[in-house]
Write a structure and sequence with these properties.
Blueprint lengths: L1 H10 L30 E4 L5 E3 L6 E3 L4 E4 L10 E4 L10 E10 L6 E6 L15 E5 L4 E4 L5 E2 L9 E7 L4 E6 L2 E8 L7 E6 L5 E5 L10 H17 L10 H15 L3 H7 L8 H4 L1 H12 L3 H11 L3 H4 L1 H15 L5 H11 L1 H4 L5 H13 L4 H25 L7 H24 L11
Antiparallel strand pairs: 1-2, 3-4, 4-15, 5-14, 6-11, 6-15, 7-8, 7-14, 8-9, 9-10, 11-12, 12-13
Helix pairs in contact: 3-4, 6-7, 6-13, 7-9, 9-10, 9-12, 9-13, 12-13
Protein name: Ran-binding protein 10
InterPro entries: B30.2/SPRY (IPR001870), B30.2/SPRY_sf (IPR043136), ConA-like_dom_sf (IPR013320), CRA_dom (IPR013144), CTLH/CRA (IPR024964), CTLH_C (IPR006595), SPRY_dom (IPR003877), Ubq-SigPath_Reg (IPR050618)
Length: 444
């Protein structure tokens, strides 16, 4: 029961986390957009050899409502044309569906349905161009940003209804035919904004879309989301949760104390949360760490190196990140008016080769050069201070790793997790976590 309540609390965030009001929510796709406002390219050559820009808008007749009909020449693949919906799928919609009924397959049934980004060229069927995903009726193949198809499902003809489902939670696009699920066609669909799309290529092809104005033949998005939510509950419920070891105030105190230790403030950590058990590695090295931190923050790189060599004799030889940052810090501290020659000499001797071995070497050297060029500028003073703190953080993280602990504190990890969850809420995850709020779900 305790685990169930914990999972339920995770899955029912407070109303304050519902970021948008009804007025702020994004519109839903409701009709087809005119292709005349989207990019096109020269596709065919005239008898004189001069390229002529075809206008795919003239190949498609849109309306009434969500009907679309092909009226172009339909001679070859260069005569293909597609449209997208008037709006992308709302960013906070976790599972979206639209359906296309084939009213007439035309002469060849070269009809494609799926999803695409806004800037996909008009002169192609869905899936042929980068940023688009399509399922084609003439051969049952699926296409993803390429003219090379992959066998997927059955062909579709006049009278068939094709359902297109984009599940942002699973990052998949799947299809159904006449209400029968055909399975997942595309995985790792990472685009943030996709539009429903349909493409036609041969004469008299005609279709009509259902964007949710009437019930879908396939399983409704709300039911699909319920299944996904149940899977999430089962997965979360399978994770063992340790019993609480103390009051919330004790937990908060431990989080703050650990953060202060990670950040190099052992004295403050002891003041707000006195140790009542075995000391951590950081606490046992508190005096040495405090002295090293004091030297670094005071800009005394020589003293900091001396203390490191005394208390942690192997760290400079075994930790190239610490060694490189300490050298850069010494260079920045040397970059003062009247001392430019010594700073340049030191940099040429110690930094040029070392920077090539460091993942951020070029960026750090660029900042160091700026400090040398403008030593008294506000930016230079700010950079010196910033890199001092970065060096302290690197030393503390190194000590943590050596002690078999994570390089950052639990409080920092908690904040990072919170930021990630908040970002996911804007990627269609919100209704997954808030089953009582259906305003983000598609009506059908």
């Amino acid at each position: 029961m305790e685990r169930a309540r914990y999972v339920d609390s995770l899955c029912h965030p407070s109303q304050s986390m519902s970021r948008t009001t009804q007025d702020e929510r994004e519109p839903w796709p409701s009709t087809w957009e005119s292709p005349s406002v989207r990019p096109r390219r020269p596709m065919r050559s005239s008898d004189s050899g001069i390229d002529v820009s075809t206008n795919p808008a003239s190949f498609l007749q849109i309306g009434p409502g969500t009907r679309i009909r092909y009226v172009g020449p339909g001679e070859d693949d260069r005569d293909a044309a597609n449209v997208v919906a008037d709006c992308p799928v709302p960013s906070d919609c976790p599972v979206y569906c639209f359906e296309v009924e084939i009213l007439c397959q035309g002469s060849s049934g070269l009809i494609g349905v799926g999803f695409a980004t806004r800037n996909v060229e008009v002169n192609v069927l869905p899936g042929w161009a980068e940023g688009s995903y399509g399922y084609h009726g003439d051969d049952g193949n699926i296409f993803r940003g390429s003219g090379q198809g992959t066998p997927f499902g059955p062909e579709f003809i006049t009278g068939d209804v094709i359902s297109c489902i984009w599940c942002k939670v699973r990052q998949t696009i799947s299809f159904a035919k006449n209400g029968v699920d055909l399975g997942v066609a595309f995985r790792n669909v990472r685009e943030r904004k996709l539009y429903p799309t349909i493409g036609l290529r041969t004469f008299n092809e005609e279709a009509v879309a259902n964007f949710g104005a009437k019930p879908f033949l396939c399983k409704p998005p709300k039911e699909l989301l319920a299944e996904i939510r149940e899977e999430a509950y089962l997965e979360m419920g399978s994770v063992p949760i340790p019993a609480p070891s103390g009051s919330p105030d004790m937990l908060l105190g431990d989080l703050v104390k650990d953060y202060l230790l990670h950040s190099g403030f052992p004295a403050t950590a002891r003041a707000i949360a006195p140790a009542d058990g075995p000391s951590s590695v950081l606490e046992s090295d508190a005096a040495a760490l405090a002295a090293i931190q004091s030297a670094v923050l005071a800009g005394d790189a020589d003293r900091a190196e001396e203390l490191l060599a005394s208390h942690l004799p192997d760290i400079l030889g075994e930790e190239p990140n610490i060694s490189f940052r300490l050298k850069c810090q010494r260079f920045m501290e040397m970059s003062k008016p009247g001392n430019e020659a010594d700073a340049i000499s030191y940099g040429m001797e110690h930094l040029s080769e070392a920077s090539a071995q460091h993942p951020m070497g070029k960026e750090i050297l660029s900042d160091a050069a700026m400090v040398l060029a403008f030593p008294d500028s506000p930016d230079a003073c700010e950079l010196r201070a910033s890199y001092r703190w970065q060096l302290v953080s690197a030393i503390v993280s190194c000590l943590q790793i050596r002690a078999g602990r994570p390089p950052c504190s639990p409080l920092e990890r908690l904040v990072r997790h919170a930021k990630l969850v908040w970002r996911e809420l804007g990627m269609g995850m919100d209704p997954l976590l808030s089953p009582g709020e259906d305003a983000h779900l598609q009506r059908s």
